[in-house]
Amino acid sequence: MLEDMTNPTDKQLPQLVGDVAEVLAAPSDASGSIWKLEPHTRGLDCNIIAIAPGEEIGRHEGPELDVVIVVLEGAGELETEGETIALQQGSMVWLPKLSVRRFVAGDQGLRYFSVHTRKRGLQIGRPPVRD
After folding, report:
1. Considering the domain boundaries, does residue 95 fall inside one?
2. Which of 77, 102, 72 is closest to 87 using CA atoms?
3. pTM to 2 decimals?
4. Phi, psi of 127 (to 5 degrees)
5. pLDDT in tens, 61-103
6. Residue 85 is part of which domain span?
7. Beta bridge partners of 86
């Protein structure tokens, strides 16, 4: 008879969640999130983002949380309000909350790992009191 292997404390345990080499084997013209962290009870959001050669993620204001990215493959540029940062394999960049950014992929495309605290879901509440 098999033992019940459930965790009696309901404590989350470390687990293997993916293989970077497998994810990066996606076609070179892939764009968007090609991997994301799946456990629903996690405290982090993690993604691997692919931008096809010559494409971009248009200028936008980031979320109300800090984000760290690590370039896994390719190269490109990160345009901010103050400067343009050259991105290449191995670059690690901190994006402060609400910072403005635009990612532009180079000739070989750009793939980066992104991690930040999990965004809060939509909250249903009462409307503000009006006088």
Report:
1. yes
2. 77
3. 0.80
4. -70, 160
5. 999 999 999 999 999 999 999 999 999 999 999 999 999 999 9
6. 49-119
7. 77
